[in-house]
Amino acid sequence: MTRVVIFNDGHGWHSDQLEAALAPYGITLIRSNLAQCRIDLDRPTGLHIPGLGAELPDGVLVRGVAAGSFEQITLRLDVLHALAELGVPVLNSPLAIERTVDKARTSLLLRYKGVPTPRTWACEDWEQARLVSAQAHQEKHELVLKPLFGCQGQGITRIGKTADLETCEVSGGLYYLQEFIPPAQPNRWQDWRLFVVDHRCIAAMVRRGRSWITNVARGAECFPAALDREMGTLACQATRAVAVDYAGVDIIQTPDKGFQVLEVNSVPSWKALQQTTGINIAKALAEALLKRLQHPYLEQSSW
């Protein structure tokens, strides 16, 4: 019997979709939460995962790592690292999650690999942040202040002048600043979410916001988008740059009609994307995991 664990802090639609996608292969799905796991050196594997006893799962899909203290997050990632080191396929790997949950590290890796991404600065010192803001103002650019760890457009602020920076609430005592990319068409606030599995783009949608924040959680409308070759290539370059198995890649068009990668999300939701495009994303993820498990029935499916 093949057993796969889905880790999330709350199970719902996404877990249901994955369970339905894995069911035809006789996979037993175990829904778990990393906060409920522990390191236990009295056990043969050194790990305790509720629902598995003293055994390891055959595979793992990470749907979420809940917010917590630095120590709590470290322990949860320790569990994922241990599973990977014990030979269990983990999608996405803990290393991939660490590379992408930290926006500054993602920005660096995209830059190192030559993937177009907005100019970015990250620092702890207020004076350094002030100088970056003053330089942007002199160049007639705006900035966006973002939490280093964050999602769904929460906690981001548009910085038009240095005075705006002075009144902002800074997350974690750190300034993560990106150059603001104005819309390619005036007052048309939109970007694209592309879903990539094993460096292959399988679905895309355009998100149109009422304002410059285009996250679905902030009220943006979603429309299916053709799998544009240029954007698809760029999204796959981004996933290779940060070495993720699957990701939601956010891309924006610049006023000069070029494209830049805004973000690579290694624990993306896909409900809006699947409902918008009709593409069974859970099935693609299930097959990616099955490929790593070398499941005997995989070749009967349509990848």
Textual characterization of the structure:
The chain is of the alpha+beta class and 303 residues long. It folds into three domains: 2-91 and 286-300, Rossmann fold; 120-179, Dna Ligase, domain 1, CATH 3.30.1490; 184-268, D-amino Acid Aminotransferase, Chain A, domain 1. Helices cover 32% and strands 24% of the residues. Strand 14 and strand 15 (259-265) form a beta hairpin. The model is unreliable at 298-303 (pLDDT under 50).
Profile the largest sheet: 5 strands, antiparallel
Shape from CA axes? globular
What is the percent of helical residues? 25-40%
Give me the CATH fold name of the largest domain: Rossmann fold
CATH hierarchy: architecture of the largest domain: 3-Layer(aba) Sandwich
The DSSP helix count reads: 9
For this structure, what is the CATH class of the largest domain?
Answer: Alpha Beta
Structural class: alpha+beta
Strand share of the residues?
15-25%
InterPro entries: ATP-grasp, ATP-grasp_RimK-type, Rp_bS6_RimK/Lys_biosynth_LsyX
Protein name: Alpha-L-glutamate ligase, RimK family
GO molecular function, one term: metal ion binding
Organism: Nitrosococcus halophilus (strain Nc4)
